[in-house]
Amino acid sequence: MNVLSLFDGMACGRIALERAGIKVDNYFASEIDKYAIKIATKNYPDIIELGDVKKWREWDLPKIDLIIGGSPCQAFSFAGGQLGFDDPRGDLFFIFEDIVKFYKPKYFLLENVKMKEEYLQVISDRVGVAPIFINSDLVSAQSRQRYYWTNIPNVSQPKDKGILLKDIIESGAVDREKSYCIDANYWKGGNPEIYKNKSRRQIVFETPDNEKQFVDRDKSYALCSGTAHNPSNYFNRSRGQIVFKSNGEEIRWRKLTPIECERLQTVPDNYTEGVSNTQRYRMLGNGWTVDVIAHILSFMEKQ
């Protein structure tokens, strides 16, 4: 099978194809981020890098059987400006559409975030299929809600694997069952206060020398923004969650490690090793949850 991956990033699509047991003859990838390309080719030296998707008319490719891609989501995300197709990044969807129409692959797969109904409808009308809504929490320890447009028939929801955040951390304890959606800005500046005080920053609680610790309830309260650093204040707030320790010393907490973020995205441990941690967090936040993609692609194999 010849595969063309647009906005390829670190080649999550290639991992998914491998995991779904689908043989790849040629994997053509369009990507411009040098760090993502470095990681993709480190893990899959046979990837054929094509460069900027905007120069697609210069490509000379053989018959393509599958086109996959997740055009930049910032233009559509509720966490962003929601400028949609007026944002140059949102406009890249139309390039995806043009390439699909030109190469006429047997199958295609497009991924993007939750968005306004008007944008959702435009994309659905242009590609000719209704999207499938899947939350990555079914196959991972991360809540990551995404739409998937594909002409692969009979795709159903993945089975819930029951993976929890506590199952994927390297050490410590957590205050919730599933992680927030990891984004490309997870690592910003190195100030731990960012992770504790922003509601979309996931933290892990630690004790000195990994001493014994335990929690006071089966389910955590939702972690709210503005939680105080002082453990007594944290404990006394009605929506605060605390981890008790055997020696009663001050609580310590940390951000997720790159390996833990890889596990949230169901990427192999140390797959992104070889660039700075900042770039590892960034590409993982921009990437796909691999097991969701592998699940969708497995229906292609069944045809």
Helix content: 25-40%
Question: What is the CATH superfamily of the largest domain?
Answer: Vaccinia Virus protein VP39
CATH C-level of the largest domain: Alpha Beta
For this structure, the CATH topology of the largest domain is Rossmann fold
The assigned CATH architecture of the largest domain is 3-Layer(aba) Sandwich
Q: For the terminal residues, how far apart are their CA atoms?
A: 14 Å
Query: Largest beta sheet: what is the strand line-up?
Result: 3-2-1-4-5-7-6
Average pLDDT confidence is 82
Number of helices: 10
Query: Beta-strand level of the residues, as a percent range?
Result: 15-25%
Written description of the protein model:
The protein is α/β, with parallel strands linked by helices and 303 residues long. The chain contains ten helices and eleven strands. The strands form three sheets. It has a seven-stranded mixed beta sheet with strand order 3-2-1-4-5-7-6, with no helix packed on it. Strands 8-11 form a two-stranded antiparallel ribbon. α3 links the parallel β4 and β5. It is globular, with a radius of gyration of 21 Å. About 8% of the residues have low confidence.
Short overview:
The protein is an alpha/beta fold and 303 residues long.
Name its key features.
303 residues, alpha/beta, Rossmann fold, 2 domains, seven-stranded mixed sheet, two-stranded antiparallel sheet, globular
